[in-house]
Amino acid sequence: MGGKLKVFSVLVSLFAVTAMIASCAGPTPSPTPTVSSPTPTVSSPTPPPPEVNALTVYHWWTSGGEKAAIDALIKVYATKYPDAAIMQTPVTGGAGFTMMGIIKTLVLAGDAPDAFQMHAGYEGKPYFDAGLLDPIDNLWKEEGLEAVIPEVVRHMCQFDGHYYSVPVNIHRVNVVWYNKSLLDKNGIDPTTLTTWDAFFAACDKLKAGGVQYPIQMGEAWTAAHAFEQIMASMGIDFYQDLINGKITSADDPKLSQALEIFKKYLGYVNPDHAALTWDDATKRIITGDGAFNIMGDWANGEFYVAKMTYGEDYGTFAVPGTQGMYGLCIDVFQHPKGVKHPTNSLGWLKVVASKEGQDAFNPIKGSIAARTDADISKYGPYQQSAIADFKAAKYMFPSVVHGSGAPESFKVKLSDIISGFTTDLDVSKAAQALTSYTKEISGEYTIQWSLK
Ligand code: BGC
After folding, report:
1. Is the CB of 77 under 6 A from ligand 1?
2. What is the pLDDT of residues 212-265, one digit of tens each?
3. How many CA within 13 A on the CB side of residue 50?
4. Are strands 54-59 and 85-90 parallel, antiparallel or unpaired?
5. Atom of ligand 1 nearest to the CA of 329
6. CB 94 less than 6 A from any atom of ligand 1
7. Which of the listed residues 18, 50, 317, 412 has the most CB atoms within 10 Å of its CB?
């Protein structure tokens, strides 16, 4: 693996715990959408009494591709542990923005589910700081995980040198998805779209060719997701400073440049974006209502269920300016203290970390396995190219919007500020808000990242 990424000096932070407790008044507040937000739903089965041999699992995998993927993983668990009743609680709301608030409430009330989805990196930190997670070093040892999980991922599953989670996958976030026939029809060669200028010129061509909104985007967090990739395109030094809490001047030229690019980008975006889920926006690339969508590679799962062929019906390229970079979003599960079914909870972690589990889940999900010994023949052409890119990556960077790179309060604030920006397009206001918030929460930046 070419990319280097290390996590230094994880410090215990009371700020993080306080922030977590404060946010337990209810679900994590959703940034105010500009139109109307897709309504989150929680389809919760009645919790089983503790004496029932059950496994309770919370996750936010509710789109077509995501559901097919989690079903495949659950099938592996059911085969290995046939006596356990599996009680899934899928919570709608992409990127976990809705589910995180629900989980915090449950965990702090001493009612943690046996397993719940989370992201590697910062997202688990408040739970660790509050002493709510059990270390799982033994499980890592017994399952021989250190030998098969890349170093970059291992670091992100640790706090204070101990393992607190197991990864099920590695998603890439800096991906542009495109509708191939629209690009062909308009004479656009996707391999040339390596700069923002070239990308916007292609958008102009598409508009001239009758594609009214060449870029499709969804609700607030997907706008923040796109902006995060634009920030990564400003270079690894800038991104590293961002996640280490060092972009504190509202006049920072790269921050302003990123906002200017995003402003231009929004000029090509569907005006109803705030009312769409991420997968609604991806579907518009599938149907040819739009040409481009910046999204993590869970989008591949939607193309998969729509039976689209990679290279023929759709394709991908790295977000302009991020060639050779691999933006990381890693789904993990952990072992909360005091769960009702600890043996089943550990069994779930073993399945999640296993070759069999990962090779059942990831080929559908769009991610690559977190394990280096995955059976590549089970993965489609998009993922095979992602595996090659991961190995060759010059730099890896942890996603902020997907919980890894920066404190959670920053992630929520970023989404909020960017949501406002999509309507007022005020560069200096957004730069001011982002940098003053970074200063305000300086004590929460307890992980120092080294991305080079
Ligand atoms: C998760 C993915 C999920 C996506 C959309 C990301 O934060 O890591 O597993 O598919 O959100 O909900």
Report:
1. no
2. 999 999 999 999 999 999 999 999 999 999 999 999 999 999 999 999 999 999
3. 8
4. parallel
5. 8
6. yes
7. 412
